[in-house]
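Study this chain:
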Amino acid sequence: MALPMALPAGLASHNRPPMPSPLNLTRFRPRLLDAMADYNRERFFKDLGAGATVGIVALPLAMAFAIASGLKPEAGIWTAIIAGFLISLLGGSAVQIGGPAGAFIVIVYGIVERYGVANLLISTACAGVLLFAAGLFGLGRLVRFVPLSIVVGFTNGIAVLILLSQLKDLLGLSVEKMPADVFSQLHAMALQIGTFNPHAFALGAACVAGLVLWPRLPRLTARLVPHRAIQRAVQMGTRVPGPIVALVTLTLVSWGFALPVETIGTRFGGIPEGLPGFALPDFSWETVKQLVTPTLTIALLGAIESLLCARVADQVSGQPRHDPNQELMAQGIANIVTPFFGGMPATGTIARTVTNIRSGGSSPVAGIVHAVTLMVVVLLAAPLARHVPLAVLAGILIFVGLNMGEWREFTPDRLRHFSRHYRLLMLGTFFLTVVFDLTVAVQVGIVLACALFIRRMSGLFSVELETLQPPVLTYRIYGALFFGAAAKLDEAVNAAERAPRGMTVVLDATHLIYLDATGIDALRQLHRAVLARDGVLRIESLQPQPREVIERSGFAEELAAGRPHTAEG
C-alpha cells in the first residue's frame, strides 16, 4: 500500500546527510603549531616584550588570588607558572593567558573550608580530566549555550563576594579564620570591628585609588602640566603595570615606616625560594565520590571562564578564532598537572589576556614567556615578598572585583531594556551566587533557562484550521511539536473525534521544523481518533527532521497500513 505522506522532493534516503559518529574525537593540535608557520624575528620580540609585561602583572595577582582562596601565596604563583605555560603551549587560542583567576576565589575557599587543601588538589585534578574529556569529545561549543543572563548574574555575584572577602585584610581586622558563607563572614567581621587597623586601611585605600588613577595620569598631566617633557615622562612611566607600581611603592612605605600591618611574612613566613616539589595527593575512589560536586563546579566554571575569555581575546586581538575543544583539552592538562605541585585551579584570565594583547602579543610564545618571566622573578625576589602587606594585595583584589562586575547591567535604565525572562535569570543567578554558592546559582539558573525556553518555544507552536470541506479536514502546523507543545494538538484530536465518518484529516507540515518522541505520541493519538471514525490521516510536505523521526519511530508504516500502534506490533 502506498504511504499516505507527501515527501519533499530530493529528500530520498540516499540523499540524507550522514549521521555523525558518536566517537568522532577531536584532533589534538595546539595553536602554537599554526602560529609557527609564519613566525619571524619581529613577532618574537613583540611576544617577548608582551610576555615579560604580563609575567610581572601576574605576580601580585597570583599571590592575591591564592591568599584570598585560603591557600599559601606560592600556590597561586606556581599555578600561574605551570598552568600558564601548559595552556599557552597546548591551547587553542593564540593570545590567551592562563592561571589562577578571581572567579575561583569563592569556590576554592569554600572547598578548602569544607574538604581541606588535599581534597582541593584531588578535585582540581579530577576536574582537569573532565575538561580534557569535554574537549576530546567536541563539547567545547556547548559552553556557548549557557545564557548570557546567567553568565552576567554569576560574574557580578562573584565580584561582590570578592569585594566582601577582602574587607577583613583591607580593614586589618583580627579574625582568626574566616567562614565560607557571606553572612557568617559579615558576622565575624562585625564582632572584630574593634580591631580595625587604620594603617592597613590607609595602604589598601591608597592601593585602590592608585590603581584607578594610574591609567588616567597621562590625561590629567596633559591638562594640568604644560611641559611636554614631563607629559612624555608620565606617559612612559604609566606603561609600567599599575599593580606592580602599587605593590612595590606601598611595600616600601610599609617597610620604611615600620607600619604595624600584617604581611606575607607574618602570616605565611614568606615564599619558598626553590622550585616546588612533586607530590602525589592521597588519592582514593572513596574520596573522589565525596568530591563530585566540587569537581563539577571547578570543571564547569573553568570551561565557562576559559572559553568566554578566549572569545573576548578573539574580538580584541583580531587573531584567528580560537579552537574551543583544543582550549578545553589544554585547560584539562594544566589542571591535571598543577595539583601535583601544590597548585590551585587554573583557567583563562581576561585581565592578563587583554594586557598581553595590548602589549603586542600575537602568538602563544608570549604566554610561554610570561610563565618563564614569572618563574625568574619569583626565584630572584622571593625573599622580598615577605614584606608585602596583605592590605595591599586586598586593594589589588578589590580593584579586580570592581572591574570584573558588569555593574551597568543592573542599572534601572538597562534593566528596562531586558525581557522579564532575562531579568529573572540574571537577578536570580546573582542572588543565589551571593547568598548560597556558584554551584546552586548555575544549576538553578540553567534549569530556569531551560524551563523558560520550553515555555517560549511551546508558545511558538500552533495548529491552525485551514479548510473544512467534507470529506477533507486540513490543518496547518507551525513550529516545533515537542513535549512542551504536544498538548496543543488536542484541539485537532477533539475535532477528529467529532468528525463525520470517513473523513480525511490532512496535516500540512510545511512549517513543522522539529518533532520529538512526545510529538510522535500526540500524532498517534490523532491517528487513533481518525481511525475510530473510519477516516484517513495524511501528513504532507514534511521537512527532513520530522520525516526522519516519523520513519524511524515506525509511525510511517502505521500510516501506510492504516492501523494504530500496538504494544505487540
Remarks:
- The two ends are 18 Å apart (CA to CA).
- Residues 41-68 form the longest helix (28 residues).
